[in-house]
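ARCHIVE CARD
Drawer: 12
Card no.: 0347
Subject: one protein chain, sequence and derived structure
Cross-reference: see card 0346
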Amino acid sequence: MGLSTHVLDTMHGTPAAGMSVELHTTQDGTATLVKSFILNADGRNPDGLLYDNASLRPGTYRLVFDVAGYFRLRGVELPEPPFLDKVSLDFGVADATAHYHVPLLASPWSYSTYRGS
């Protein structure tokens, strides 16, 4: 199935619609931007999969979520600097034929992730 992501706003109990996200490939400490996008009303990439199975390759990747920017857009008062600004998740893809779903649960003060299904 490829690579996908989904973000839930745990402060408001909603999908994180409007959050900016970047996808990078990484190699030897260097990150290369693949795409940037704004999450849709369901907290997902509006174009669907970030990579389908035909395009996904074994390797290392980084998702960067603009958590502080999202909560500011929602009208949440944050300290300056915010506790969480951009959350970067580095992860590896070992089996490009498998589905890698990378969800993020976020508030202005905490986040959690896991390999979803």
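Annotation on reverse: The helical segments are 67-73. The mean pLDDT is 97.
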